[in-house]
Design goal:
With 72 residues, the protein is mainly alpha-helical. It is 69% helix and 0% strand.
Length: 72
């Protein structure tokens, strides 16, 4: 049980950071727990970004053109 919780927590942290560790994700013992945590982390990050956009009153894209993303 402890390994499953550690894997879930690692997946949640990785999901929030936008990273996926394929080695842990494919592990037969804790891979499923990691992937569930990964999904939960990504959902939490999405909700956080959506809330920040709502607070700032942002609708649509933050950028006028694709070049604005790279600063070119």
């Amino acid at each position: 049980m402890d390994d499953a919780l550690v894997a879930y927590d690692a997946g949640r942290a990785d999901g929030a950071a936008g990273y996926r560790d394929p080695q842990i994700a494919e592990d037969p013992e804790v891979g499923a727990d990691y992937r569930i945590g990964l999904l939960d982390g990504r959902i939490a990050a999405f909700h956080l970004i959506a809330e920040v956009r709502r607070i700032l009153g942002v609708d649509g894209s933050l950028f006028e053109r694709p070049d604005d993303v790279t600063g070119a």
